[in-house]
Amino acid sequence: MRTVDRVLALVLGLVGLGGGLLVAAEVVHGLLGRPGHLLVPYGGTATWLREHTWGSGAVLAIGGVLAGLGLLLLVAELAPRRRTLLVVAGTDDDVVTAVSRTGVGRALEQSVAGLSGVDGTRSSVGRCTATLTVRTALRDLGDLEQQVRERAGAALGSLGLAQAPELRVDLQRVSA
Amino acid sequence: MSGPTALAPMTRTPGAVRTNRAVLALLGLLLLAAGVLTLLVGLRVLGDGPADRTVVDGAVDDVARAGWFWPVVGAAALLVAALSAWWLTVQARTDRLVRLRLDDDAAGGRTLLEGTALTRAVEDEVADLPGVTRATAHLSGTPSAPRLHLRVRLDGRVDPADVHRAITGQVLVHARAALELDRLPTRVELDLPRGAARALG
């Protein structure tokens, strides 16, 4: 969201700067009694506004679009930002170390990548739960789930998180 | 351990992040208000009269003919341009601390240290730790009360907790000693790359 905000800020900032200066120039142009427009051909827009009532479909559509965009922007900006980093436990109060949720997911996936019978992995890490999905073509799973759970649990423990998410393992059979 | 267990990623432009959020929320509110008002008038919620009038009619023309109208419009446009220019300049403002004050003793004078001298030393020391492929650092805060921000890319062969211990117990101790500071609040972000081999289990 920060990147989207940054892009919006640059675009809207430039539009506001350019538009504000243009409108001010047009006003000065008009106040000096010069005929026509300076740079902005606003005649067509003025005519359109004189021809359409507030109840016309086009004006209502514009109102709807404005309201929709405004609501979207407002909700997006007021929504709490996702805390994508999980804090590592430490003894020094002056030092805060954190690892990204995707990083935690990668650690879990890599911990089981070498296991026999593991054909693919996927992970999803939240603040409370970390789900490791393992795809296998084995017909007889044997103790694969137990091995995955042990390795992933060890990997999660080795991260030393202040509040480790609960590990969930999901074994999915795929055809060989 | 007290404090949060989850954090948002750090940024070098916290002021711009806060400002963008506030300005965009305000713009969203203005757009929403304008849109809702248009719909209320157009859908006759506020009565039949306004909905049948054109958007620009005689009453609007009368106001536009008043002597004060266009100068006010021009001033408002310049205000919008000035606020937009300020918004653009905010984007380039970082919290980076350029110099550190090492000695604030009135009798002994003032000793300043370039921030990059410390951050480069910290980056080099962290990069030499086992399991670290790359480290970047920057300082924020004030010259007499700096804060260190570290981003560390790991190779996945060493436990992140071990790297954390090495940074805390070794690198930051050296940094504090070099600056003759009792405290150096530090934030470290560890990055585990995709595809790295972890020798676990």
Strand and helix map with partners:
The complex is a heterodimer of chains A (176) and B (201).
Chain A: H1 2-31, H2 43-51, H3 57-78, E1 85-88, E2 95-100, H4 101-112, E3 120-125, E4 129-136, H5 144-158, E5 166-173
Parallel strand pairs in A: 4-5
Antiparallel strand pairs in A: 1-2, 3-4
Helix pairs in contact in A: 4-5
Chain B: E1 6-7, H1 14-42, H2 48-51, H3 58-65, H4 69-91, E2 99-103, E3 111-114, H5 115-127, E4 132-142, E5 145-154, H6 160-179, E6 186-191
Parallel strand pairs in B: 5-6
Antiparallel strand pairs in B: 2-3, 4-5
Helix pairs in contact in B: 5-6
Description:
- The complex is a heterodimer of chains A (176) and B (201).
- Chain A is of the alpha+beta class.
- Helices cover 50% and strands 18% of the residues of chain A.
- In chain B, strands 4-5-6 form a 3-stranded mixed β-sheet, with helices on one face. Chain B has a two-stranded antiparallel ribbon with strand order 2-3.
- In chain B, strand 4 and strand 5 form a beta hairpin.
- Chains A and B meet through helix 1, helix 2, helix 3, strand 1 and strand 2 of A and strand 1, helix 1, helix 4, helix 6 and strand 6 of B.
List keywords for this structure.
heterodimer; A: 176 residues; alpha+beta; three-stranded mixed sheet; two-stranded antiparallel sheet; 5 helices; 5 strands; elongated; B: 201 residues; 6 helices; disordered C terminus
Radius of gyration of chain B: 28 Å
The best one-word shape of chain B is: elongated
Helix content of chain A: 40-55%
Q: Which strands sit side by side, in order, in the main sheet of chain A?
A: 3-4-5
Strand order of the largest sheet of chain B: 4-5-6
Strand content of chain B: 15-25%
C-alpha-based Rg of chain A, rounded: 29 Å
Q: State the secondary-structure class of chain B.
A: alpha+beta
Major pleated sheet of chain A: 3 strands, mixed
Helix content of chain B: 40-55%
Number of strands of chain B: 6
